[in-house]
Amino acid sequence: MPPRKDPDGSVSVPCFYGAELRYKREEAGLTLEQLVEGSYRGISFLSQIERGERRMPEDLARHIDQKLKTDGFFERRCKDAQKARQNGIAEYFADVADMETRAATIEEWAPGVIPGLLQTTEYVRALVQTGKPWLPAEEVEKRARARVARATFWQREDRAYYWCVLHESVLRRTTLPPEQMAEQLQHVADVIRSTQSVLQLLPETAAVNPLMMGDLRIMTFPDAPPLAYTENVHSGQVIDFPPLVTDYRKSYDLLRAAALPPEASLAMIEDAARGYRDEAQQGD
């Protein structure tokens, strides 16, 4: 069993919130199981909140206040913790963005766009403007800055081992002008090579695959069970039910077995980048 990891409340507002929750629970002499009983939530979910990794939903906050007799403290403060966590990141992704800094491994399937950790500022901005054209310019920039700020992940010595499967069609989808597309694709190849990460392309000739219905991320942790995360246009879902995570794990393994080898995949990405550069020069 791994050693107990006490939450450091000085790291962030969510960590402070989680540390206070653990203190109050232990002061009351309750286990995680006893505190969560009757709340329709799982033990692992509550444990992640205590570690500052997941946001506290209001229904669970009310349940905890009743069990711990904390006079509504956790319900009043759960929105503060949520706001502190978001900072330009979509609410449904905020937990995942926080957990990626603590993960041991991150495995992604990206059928439609380049994954967030590999996106350039121009690419992020184009995605936000296309997906939510009603947003004011300052909100677009806020979201773009928040997405790009996640790239500090690559500078961490203790970062997770990263593996991505990208659909080949993403290379052909001209989200940006040719010169910027070239920069985006070269950025992907450079990051993957320089960090000893793994990227594979699922070829367009693979007409069907085990994960045709949307994006997927699987994360493992040194001191917690693995999680899966699925995402659609305006929402996402964290999945921690072990049998379902196992099913996603099997589907991902089948997917990458059908993908091209890593070196061939990077060569195709770099070739596509050269093609966009040539196109940009011809247009000058």
UniProtKB/TrEMBL annotation:
InterPro entries: Cro/C1-type_HTH, DUF5753, Lambda_DNA-bd_dom_sf
Domain HTH cro/C1-type: start-end pairs: 21-55
Signal peptide: none
Source organism, top-level taxon: Bacteria
CDD domains in alphabetical order: HTH_XRE
Alphabetized SUPFAM superfamilies for the sequence: lambda repressor-like DNA-binding domains
Protein name in UniProt: Helix-turn-helix transcriptional regulator
